Amino acid sequence: MIGQMIGLLRAECLKLKRTVIVLLIVSVPLMVFLLGVAVIATGNSASDWPMLAASGAAIWSFFLLPMTATALTALVAQLEHGSRGWSYTLALPLAKWTVFSAKALIVLFVMAVISVLVGAAIIGSGVFAGWIAPKQAMAGELPIALMVGLMTKMWLAGLLVVSIQFAVAIRFESFAVPVVVGIGGTFVAIVATSAKIGLYFPWLMATNVLNSEPERAAQAIVMGSLGGIALFALTIVWLSRRDWK
Amino acid sequence: MTELAIETVGLSRSFGAVSAVTDIDLQVPRGSIFGFLGPNGSGKTTTFRLLLGLIRADAGTVLLGGANLRTNRAEALSSIGAIVETPALYPNLTAREILRISTLLLKIKTTEIDRVLDIVDLRDAANRRVLDYSLGMRQRLAIARALMGDPDLLMLDEPTNGLDPAGISDMRGLIKSLPERSGTTVFVSSHQLSEIEQMTDHCALIKSGQLLFQGRLDALMAQAYTSFFIETNNTERALAMAKQAGLDATLDATGLAIHSPLDPSARSELIGAIIRAGGEVSQAFVRETSLEALFLSLTNNDERAS
């Protein structure tokens, strides 16, 4: 089973060759970096590392994480929808659940890679801004541990929204459906931020990690991660059992 | 080892109120090129998907190489290569990369890539992106992919769809060569009857989700009747005389059409009888039915088939 899964993962990586995956992985951290530099260098942000980490992580979790999940899951799913690859892959002597699990693992891995790069970009923006605008230079040590903690928690809390996007992208052949769900969810999140229900809204789980109340932040991580794992499992079981016409 | 590459018993599937496939008992002999014929919407692709486990059957059993698809899916599919409808493949990859994916999924050696590329004559184009391939090249690549691992059974759903005449001829030659080359059983669906006639040795006919015939192609052709046409000025009288003689006869645009087998002396006798009854015969000729005519006859007139 492990050998089969390794083969599936390698095959999924190969399928992504010459797609926009590299652009996606590079562009998101680059946006965070440029935004960070611009804000710090123009003096619009407080010059301390915790503040920079929080503001960068907020941009990532509130807007870029859901959008990245939308684009990434749609890309992975469209590789099969567009090439009518399901009929080939699902007729192979492989357990169907392993096929969908491999796709889910690739998505989670790429999300983790982007999270790491975004964390690095936030710190990098502070360093770079301090270099080009010494007056705005950050005091103290680089907040590596803080950043690792934030990105890990946001990745965990974001599992639910990633799993929703994954299910929609694989289920619907049209590219438009996951995009509409992703954009719609992000816009609703703007309104839901101020509502009580925002705590339970999947698109806000990652942002809630930054909540000033520690219990609420912990709740977001637990709900987002467990909900995401449960939804991934249900989606994989459901996809394995449904008809592929 | 079972003599049947594919066997289904009572295979049925409905979509809502529509019965797509009903009680299909299919028997595909090992080593044959088996044509699966039917008009568009007859249930061919649904049957394909049922055979590959892409959709679930409401009832019935599928045995592939003797292994039950429902209870032993991995073994049933372990030696099958398939193309379902026109595959688009991965346009961002080269042929070699696409076949590399198959080696990873099937856990087979990469030397298989060159072997199948040679079979479909795509080795020179193997490092080009599929995006730049013609439809014919894509179809050949899809067959190459289906041949990875040297399967015992190759299932091809409408493999000549959209190909130009040269592409169809190439595809036909390729498919015909497979059983000899590696003993592969080929199960090929088509609505192009001439293709099936030229390519296969066994066939099944499906219409509205039901099998009308299955068996050797020559057995099907033996059902083909030779019609004898008589152009006369008194068709009604001639028809009455033919029916009186116990012949299966109809009137058509040509005149009197006799569908019962008649030897030359019986034909002369019938013409003589029409003339003696005062009729004039301006023309008489024999026309053999093609598989196409037989197919139309079977699918439009099930009573005659039975």
Question: Can you characterise this structure?
Answer:
The complex is a heterodimer of chains A (245) and B (306). In chain A, helix 3 (49-83) packs parallel to helix 7, helix 5 (96-132) runs antiparallel to helix 9 (214-241) and helix 7 packs parallel to helix 9 (214-241). Helices cover 75% and strands 0% of the residues of chain A. The model of chain A has no long low-confidence stretch (mean pLDDT 93). Chain A is mainly α and 245 residues long. Chain A has one domain. Chain B is of the alpha/beta class and 306 residues long. Chain B folds into two domains: 4-217, 3-Layer(aba) Sandwich (Rossmann fold), CATH 3.40.50.300; 226-288, Alpha-Beta Plaits, CATH 3.30.70. The interface between A and B is medium-sized, with 29 and 34 residues.
> Ranges of chain A with pLDDT <50 over ≥5 residues?
none
Q: Estimate percent helicity of chain B.
A: 25-40%
- The CATH topology of the largest domain in chain B corresponds to Rossmann fold
- Chain pair sharing the greatest interface: A-B, 29 and 34 residues
Radius of gyration of chain B: 24 Å
Overall geometry of chain A? globular
Which band does the percent of strand residues of chain A land in? under 5%
- The end-to-end distance of chain A, rounded to whole angstroms, is 27 Å
Helix/strand-derived class of chain A?
mainly alpha
CATH class of the largest domain in chain B: Alpha Beta
Q: Spans of chain B with pLDDT under 50 lasting ≥5 residues?
A: 302-306
CATH architecture of the largest domain in chain B: 3-Layer(aba) Sandwich
Q: What's the main sheet of chain B like? A: 6 strands, mixed
Summarize the topology.
The complex is a heterodimer of chains A (245) and B (306).
Chain A: H1 2-15, H2 21-41, H3 49-83, H4 85-89, H5 96-132, H6 144-157, H7 159-171, H8 176-192, H9 214-241
Helix pairs in contact in A: 1-5, 2-3, 2-5, 3-5, 3-6, 3-7, 3-8, 5-6, 5-9, 6-9, 7-8, 7-9
Chain B: E1 4-15, E2 18-24, E3 27-29, E4 33-37, H1 44-51, E5 59-64, E6 67-68, H2 73-76, E7 80-83, H3 95-106, H4 111-119, H5 135-147, E8 153-157, H6 165-182, E9 185-190, H7 193-199, E10 202-207, E11 210-216, H8 217-222, E12 226-232, H9 235-244, E13 249-251, E14 256-258, H10 264-276, E15 281-288, H11 291-300, H12 302-305
Parallel strand pairs in B: 4-9, 4-10, 7-8, 8-9
Antiparallel strand pairs in B: 1-2, 1-3, 1-5, 5-6, 10-11, 12-14, 12-15, 13-14
